[in-house]
Specification:
Blueprint (H helix, E strand, L loop, with lengths): L13 H11 L8 H9 L5 E4 L2 E4 L5 H18 L5 E4 L4 E4 L2 E3 L3 E4 L17 E5 L5 H14 L4 E6 L4 E8 L2 E9 L3 E3 L7 E3 H5 L3
Parallel strand pairs: 7-8
Antiparallel strand pairs: 1-2, 1-5, 3-6, 4-5, 6-7, 8-9, 9-10, 11-12
């Protein structure tokens, strides 16, 4: 007796993929950490986990990647000679049990920091996000709250649409703004004395 072939899995959009995952894999709200880790080891997409729920992030644009490359090189050349480590996405950051984020850029002040693990990092000293047009509140609100929960001391938000770089520093359980920088200015780190990046070349990176 012939059986009908299963339709191919269409990964054209995050929304389509998420709907199909619900049919063939654990339902939304039921994903375990290990299931999430196995999935993200075998998918060329950025996927985040919150208490059993998956969120498939949009593919980055060329402009996003140009800005990220510019910033990564700036952080890398500053922190690596001083014994730290800089990494860019994809690299999972565990906020707490059952919650993972995929920051655009992560930093640790010490290469031997025990939070630096191979499968994912258990924490970071600095996180950076470049805002995507699809859902700005993800970086402006949600991840600001999440990185504060994870006690990440400094959080940078690059907003290509507003042409700003905002530097936030952790004060207790929440971030306060250390500065918002615009074209012709340089964004300065509180965590890394002497480190700054010019806003205009960052936004114009190609």
């Amino acid at each position: 007796m012939a059986t009908s072939a299963q339709p191919p899995l269409n990964l054209s959009t995050g929304q389509d993929w998420q709907a199909q995952l619900e049919e063939i894999l654990p339902r939304q709200g039921e994903w375990s950490e290990e299931e999430y880790l196995v999935l993200t080891n075998h998918r060329n997409r950025l996927v985040e986990l919150t208490d059993g729920f998956l969120e498939v992030l949009p593919m980055p644009t060329d402009k996003h990647q140009a800005i990220l490359a510019f910033l990564y090189l700036a952080f890398f050349h500053f922190i690596e000679p001083r014994g730290g480590k800089a990494r860019f996405a994809p690299l999972r950051l565990r906020i707490r049990p059952g919650k993972f984020r995929e920051p655009d850029l992560l930093l640790l002040l010490a290469a031997a920091d025990p939070r630096r693990q191979d499968r994912f990092w258990e924490g970071a000293d600095l996180a950076l996000e470049i805002i995507s047009e699809d859902k700005p509140e993800r970086d402006l609100v949600d991840k600001r709250r999440d990185y504060a929960e994870a006690q990440v001391p400094e959080y940078w938000i690059v907003n290509p649409q507003a042409e700003t770089i905002t530097v936030l520093r952790l004060q207790g359980a929440a971030y306060e703004e250390a500065g918002t920088y615009r074209r012709s200015e340089s964004a300065a780190s509180v965590l890394l004395p002497g480190f700054s990046v010019p806003v205009t070349p960052t936004l114009d990176a190609d």
